[in-house]
Amino acid sequence: MIKSDSMNTKRQLTLWQIISLNIGLLGVQFAWSLAVANMSGIYGLFGAKVSSLGYLWLAPSIVALLIPPFIGYLSDRTHTIFGKRIPYIFVGSVLTAICMLILPNVHSLFMAAILLCIFSATINIALQPYRPLVADVVPAKSHTKLYAIQAGLIGIGATLASAAPWVFLHLFHVRNIVVGVPLEIRFAFYGGAIALIITGFWTLVVCKSMLPAHEKITTPKLEGSFLNIVKQKAISLLTIPRVMRQVSYVQFFTWLGVFGFIVYLTPAIEQAIFHVSPTAHLLHNASYHKLVEKSTVLTGLACAAYMLANVAFAYCIPLLSKLISRKKIHIIALLFGAASLISLRYVHQESWLLFAMIGFGIAWASFNSIPFAMIAAELPANKLGYYMGVFNAAICLPQIIVSVFAGYLLLKVLHNSAANLMLLSGVCFVIAALLMLPINDRG
Questions:
Q1: Interhelix angle for 183-206 vs 286-314, to 10°?
Q2: Would 227 be classed as within a structural domain?
Q3: How many whole angstroms separate alpha carbon 126 and alpha carbon 217?
Q4: Which helix (H) or strand (E) element contains residue 228?
Q5: Helix (H, G, I), strand (E, B) or coil at 140
Q6: Tens digits of per-residue pLDDT, 6-34?
Q7: What's the pTM?
Q8: Helix (H) or strand (E) segment spanning residue 398
């Protein structure tokens, strides 16, 4: 197997170069976090039932499952003067920015769901190449540090995005509307579009000089017939490195919990803190609209709280990994996340909600960096983008499962309580931590 370190063109980067290489992630995560924090609330504003939220996230999850391996395969073989990955990052960022300008101006549940599907496709085009881009440029011994910095930049972008509606609402005294998407959320989406354009352009122009010399060729390269490509990829799936397979199981259960949290945090806040009835959507009056808006803005603030914790912990990961090990750090972080999610079942005040987010932020930093660092050095360099795309299935399949079954669980087992679903999400984190125990990580 050809390992990443066999590339003699790889080199150590300065902190500024590392930040520049990954700055686009800040814009991409700004956009993604706006969707994570606000889409369930937007669906609620258009009258969606709590038990239907999972189904509304189903199509975007399927899109997110299919796009990354395809983009990874293409980026492994598409060589330009801007390298293999950067053209996809830039094009995906521009398309996502356009989608963000349109999405908050929709006037129906159906159009909101369609726009979220398109958003899911374009943002995965922009996001997927960042993981292999790091491994393309730097040697394996620097992967933990680089992916930790990625997680930190993800956290900064997500913190800004999550807090943006609250800032617009309180700092600029935005006047709310009775129907449609509130103005503070619209303004936040517009800001996300601007951030995507700026950071995508930065990546396109500034990062070109950091690429290994062997990437800077001008001949596009796409080999083989479609059937031959499918055959090759099927064979590749049978030869996935053992560590990647083990870490995939960990990510699978982690993201079962994460996606339950993403989809149902807003209704959990509605029910636990603002005491909104699960059947209140049937009224769909101004009072209900106001409570959903408050819950959506508070969801953003909660996301900002856990992302601040994510930023702080992300930059501790390289040092802690040397003192203990990546494996032990990830187990501890997942258990912190589990405690945080389980506590949401019993939180009824805004201040305690924000405090409870700290543990989830620690886990977020870990599962957005350590798993990728663990598998990067085990993958063939010429198939890095493809395998990273396949690894993304461990994130997207849980999203599909939550989308299909969570609504049924809510209605039939959990008494329509989104807070009870937070408890199940915490249990998934505990299972993920246990699955880390048999993994032999060399980092």
A1: 30
A2: no
A3: 21
A4: helix 226-238
A5: helix
A6: 444 566 777 777 777 778 888 888 888 88
A7: 0.71
A8: helix 393-412
